[in-house]
Design goal:
Number of strands: 7
Largest sheet: 7 strands, mixed
Organism: Apodospora peruviana
InterPro entries: Acyl_CoA_acyltransferase, GNAT_dom, Trichothecene_AcTrans
Number of helices: 8
CATH architecture: 3-Layer(aba) Sandwich
CATH superfamily: Gcn5-related N-acetyltransferase (GNAT)
Bound molecules: coenzyme A
Strand content: 15-25%
Helix content: 40-55%
GO molecular function: acyltransferase activity, transferring groups other than amino-acyl groups
Number of domains: 1
Protein name: Acyl-CoA N-acyltransferase
Shape: globular
Mean pLDDT: 93
Order of helices and strands: EHHHEEHHEHEHEEH
Domain N-acetyltransferase: 100-232
CATH topology: Aminopeptidase
Radius of gyration: 20 Å
Length: 253
């Protein structure tokens, strides 16, 4: 049976639907709920909805967003990508992957969305030790990102009512196609929940950090897998090497 949903461009009008999809998805994750202690899922959805328009507009030149919508047009999944600074435009100076770029809004609307974002709740007080652990996770990420320009898979969320239908897989595959076309690797800071999807699609783990976070009121293991997708680049290098050897061989014969 063909999928009952399709991928589409996001606009600022999607803010409420994205707030609901994303927060409902992350609400199920113990690593996320550490941040939202004492809050309800509805409250967190409302706050995310206020932040969503700016999330879609900030760094528009390099951020790309895709939603999955069902037959009724309801948002059932969302994925956000960051292009490296070297790959935001084509050789004709047009935006790369334009169908995933959010349409711009007027300066007046932009200002209103900034104010709305600033009025939103951002997160509770972090438990002792969490900030330090987050810093160590951020340091590993920065170290890997400093090695070469990556397209970053920045956010992935599928509403719990739609789990297990291949929506996340399709969203990630869509970005992989773009990265392969542009000839760039992908980096993702992967949570346990999505690690299987990334591994199945060809991402490899380059580092990981997990620690017991029960004392912080979190899940037993808090942390992430650091994964990259670069098999198109590695394959290209092998073909180049092979071509070189064939050339050498024919010179000698
Ligand atoms: C993880 C998530 C994106 C998967 O979306 P999805 O559309 O159900 O994924 P798919 O149908 O394409 O693939 C399902 C796979 O995810 C796995 N999965 C889903 N939730 C999982 C969880 N909480 N823990 C472990 N595996 C999980 C399924 O077992 C299945 O694995 P398989 O491919 O190895 O068989 C979705 O559950 C979600 O939004 N979770 C909360 C947010 C999150 O963790 N985002 C990823 C951050 S890196």
């Amino acid at each position: 049976m063909p999928p009952q949903w399709k991928l589409a461009q996001c606009t600022v009008d999607d803010a409420p639907a994205l707030g609901r999809n994303n927060m409902a998805a992350f609400w199920e994750e113990p690593m996320y709920s550490m941040r939202s202690k004492g809050k309800t899922c509805e409250f967190v959805i409302e706050q995310a909805t206020k932040r969503s328009p700016m999330r879609l507009l900030v760094d528009r030149h390099k951020m790309r967003h895709q939603k999955a919508v069902d037959g009724d047009g309801a948002v059932v999944g969302y994925c956000r990508w960051g292009l490296p600074d070297t790959k935001t435009t084509t050789s004709e100076n047009k935006p790369e992957w334009p169908e995933a770029q959010v349409p711009a809004v007027s300066a007046e609307q932009y200002k209103q969305f900034e104010e709305l974002r600033d009025s939103a709740w951002w997160g509770g007080g972090e438990p002792d030790g969490k900030e330090e652990l987050d810093d160590r996770l951020a340091n590993i990420k920065q170290r890997i990102l400093a090695e070469r320009p990556y397209m970053i898979l920045d956010y992935l969320a599928v509403h719990p009512d739609n789990k297990g239908k291949g929506i996340a897989t399709a969203l990630v595959e869509s970005g992989i196609r773009e990265a392969e076309r542009m000839g760039i690797p992908i980096f993702v800071f992967a949570w346990k929940s999505a690690r299987g999807i990334y591994a199945r699609l060809g991402f490899r783990e380059v580092d990981r950090l997990f620690e017991d976070a029960t004392a912080m009121g979190g899940p037993i293991q808090y942390g992430a897998y650091f994964m990259v997708y670069d098999r198109h680049i590695r394959a290209f290098k092998w073909w180049k090497r092979l071509g070189f050897l064939v050339c050498l061989g024919s010179l000698g014969s």
